Amino acid sequence: MSDLPGVVVTGVSGRMGRMLVQEIAASDKLRLAGAIERAGHDWVGRDLGLAMGGAETGVIVSDDADEAFAGAAVVIDFTAPEATIAFGALAAARGLVHVIGTTGFTDDQIAALEAASEGAVQIRAGNMSLGVNLLTVLTRKVAEALDADFDIEIVEAHHNRKVDAPSGTALMLGEAAAVGRGVALGDVSDRGRDGITGARTRGDIGFSAIRGGDIVGEHDVIFAGPGERVVLRHVASDRALFARGALKAAAWGLERPAGFYDMLDVLGLN
């Protein structure tokens, strides 16, 4: 097993970080080579297995990403935009595959990530699940078929600890709808309604966000026309599906030339 490509998990103490560790342990294609946490975190310097309440793994949690990346082939990153930008530069410098599930990027941050992908494989997706990526394709197709008489609304629901809205998946779906309509999402996005807002603008793509409890992820794309509605829906009930998707992306990326990819590429849907 030691000859398998090594993976470093960033933000390892988080829910996705722990899930990734568990999925890597069960994998026959990848092995855990390193674990990263922010400086000052109480896991830093401890054996990861013991920190997670289990048996020793021999992997020591580090706050030095460059050192941890030295023995790896892949970085899987579900953290925060600023951290991901830094990890992206380090991963590119070492030629590592960088799988990014982080969301909430600004346009400038996305540009910085795309620049890093010129020297290494980078796979970034607002959602790593097969079902959501199929939903993205369907959303684009339906948007192509239905004109602006059908209003497009994207409704997403997540747990009460999610910090960004709309979700990365919702924005991914909005982008797919905009491509289907032949417009730029930035020109037609309607993300906030409060008070007397006036009538809906024809052709806009609306977003609504629900936050509560332990909802893993639910996304509806509504095409509301005169006398009828078309609703496309995906419900995630197990967070492990995102970790499995990230590992699939990691293994796929090891066989690809440098450049930017997304999950549609990984799944052969582009």
UniProtKB/TrEMBL annotation:
GO terms for molecular function: 4-hydroxy-tetrahydrodipicolinate reductase; NAD binding; NADP binding; oxidoreductase activity, acting on CH or CH2 groups, NAD or NADP as acceptor. InterPro entries: DapB_C (IPR022663), DapB_N (IPR000846), DapB_N_CS (IPR022664), DHDPR_bac (IPR023940), NAD(P)-bd_dom_sf (IPR036291). It comes from the Bacteria. Its main location: cytoplasm. Keywords: Amino-acid biosynthesis, Cytoplasm, Diaminopimelate biosynthesis, Lysine biosynthesis, NAD, NADP, Oxidoreductase. It catalyses: (S)-2,3,4,5-tetrahydrodipicolinate + NAD(+) + H2O = (2S,4S)-4-hydroxy-2,3,4,5-tetrahydrodipicolinate + NADH + H(+); (S)-2,3,4,5-tetrahydrodipicolinate + NADP(+) + H2O = (2S,4S)-4-hydroxy-2,3,4,5-tetrahydrodipicolinate + NADPH + H(+). (S)-2,3,4,5-tetrahydrodipicolinate binds at residues 159, 168-169. The keyword Ligase does not apply. Pathway: Amino-acid biosynthesis; L-lysine biosynthesis via DAP pathway; (S)-tetrahydrodipicolinate from L-aspartate: step 4/4. Its EC number is 1.17.1.8. It is found in: Cytoplasm. The active site is at residues 158, 162. GO terms for biological process: diaminopimelate biosynthetic process; lysine biosynthetic process via diaminopimelate. Homotetramer. Catalyzes the conversion of 4-hydroxy-tetrahydrodipicolinate (HTPA) to tetrahydrodipicolinate. Belongs to the DapB family. This is 4-hydroxy-tetrahydrodipicolinate reductase. It comes from Roseivivax lentus.
